Amino acid sequence: MVSIAGDTLMNPADLEFHFDFGSPNAYLSHRVLPQIEARRNVKFSYLPVLIGGVFKLTNNVSPMVANRDILNKKEYAQIETNRFLLRHGIDNFRMNPHFPVNTLRIMRGAVYAAQQGFGAHYIDVVFAAMWEQGRNLAEEREILAVLDAAGLPAGEILQRCDDPAIKQRLMDNTADSVRRGAFGSPFFFVGGQIFFGKDKLDDVERELQNLQARGT
Amino acid sequence: MVSIAGDTLMNPADLEFHFDFGSPNAYLSHRVLPQIEARRNVKFSYLPVLIGGVFKLTNNVSPMVANRDILNKKEYAQIETNRFLLRHGIDNFRMNPHFPVNTLRIMRGAVYAAQQGFGAHYIDVVFAAMWEQGRNLAEEREILAVLDAAGLPAGEILQRCDDPAIKQRLMDNTADSVRRGAFGSPFFFVGGQIFFGKDKLDDVERELQNLQARGT
């Protein structure tokens, strides 16, 4: 059970956002989550997972692949995205022209950045480069340029992406996410309950309210 | 554009619920939609469509088929269903033991019932038989028994299911639904906007509120 009372701060260990930079819906969730955190006075832990690994472990595929040959479904996904942008006043999202992007390096970088204490800054910078600036973050030189421009230790981060412990940690995160019920990105974990997709953010907030109202 | 002002009654022609009795999510939506109608002072038109026809026309398959071999996804769908039941206080839903049920006859019956002016009663009765009482409504004698017990003209309805005009109307509804963007069940149409699935009922209500606030 999570341990909270009234509106006091919830244990961050109980609130997790499992993300891959390659998922536009993870980015869109990242834009809205801070508002929920502020309203509910909580903080989510961001857990880097490799969506390609999640798909392999669950025998799933991306929506782009799954919906490729289904009439109307891709168009509807676009309608839903536009609706989300409008509702939340997000006006600088644009589809990455290099999509789908291999995110292996930047996800390993997220593991390292978190360990070094600049995880939040790194996540903001990389999400923006991917889904606002259209950068191709499968390329090392693009990663270097983006991180460097943001004042992050670009060379150091990229070098540590080859560290076996970092690689293993990302694999472990991914397997752990699947073991706990994930099959795609983004996934939210709220005190034992799981929620899939940006469209469940309202339910995430409702669950937080319920937990806080119960004081459990 | 829809023609409404303030909280006045919205034109029913602009609010549609496209359903197939065979979809548990259509049933669950049918349980919640009346509350939205009451809060927003509107009424939805129920349009019978054949989900099998929608799938054929869009090259789609049911979630049961699509998720069959994906780890965690079926379990998550069950979590979402339970969450929906709990939130809306629905305690008499049970999965139909004959699922998936061939709904061709009962959907044709819905077309006829609507033409005869007892569509709403018929829909309540058939949805309940399917998703509360576990009846096998692919069977003629089961349909007869259920409709008869509800005081509906069972023999007449079943007979008219073979009427070419009724058959054609259901096919036309189905093609029309796909032409307007559907690829599954349930679909909601609100003044030109489309919404897919029971999980979008909050968005359906938000759209109604926005339209009414704008008075357009």
Kindly describe this structure.
2 copies of one chain form a homodimer. By secondary structure, chain A is an alpha+beta fold. Helices cover 55% and strands 8% of the residues of chain A. Chain A has 10 helices and 4 strands; from the N terminus they run E-H-E-H-H-H-H-H-H-H-H-E-E-H. The first copy, chain A, has helices spanning 24-40, 51-58, 63-66, 73-88, 104-116, 119-131, 140-149, 154-160, 164-179, 201-214, and strands at 15-19, 45-48, 187-190, 193-196. Chain A has a 4-stranded mixed β-sheet with strand order 2-1-3-4, with helices on both faces. The longest helix of chain A is centred in the N-terminal third of the chain and has 17 residues, at 24-40. The N and C termini of chain A lie close together (7 Å). The A-B interface holds A 57-60, 66, 69-73, 75-76, 79, 83, 87, 178, 181-183, 193-194, 196, 199-200, 202-203, 206 and B 57-60, 66, 69-73, 75-76, 79, 83, 87, 178, 181-183, 193-194, 196, 199-200, 202-203, 206.
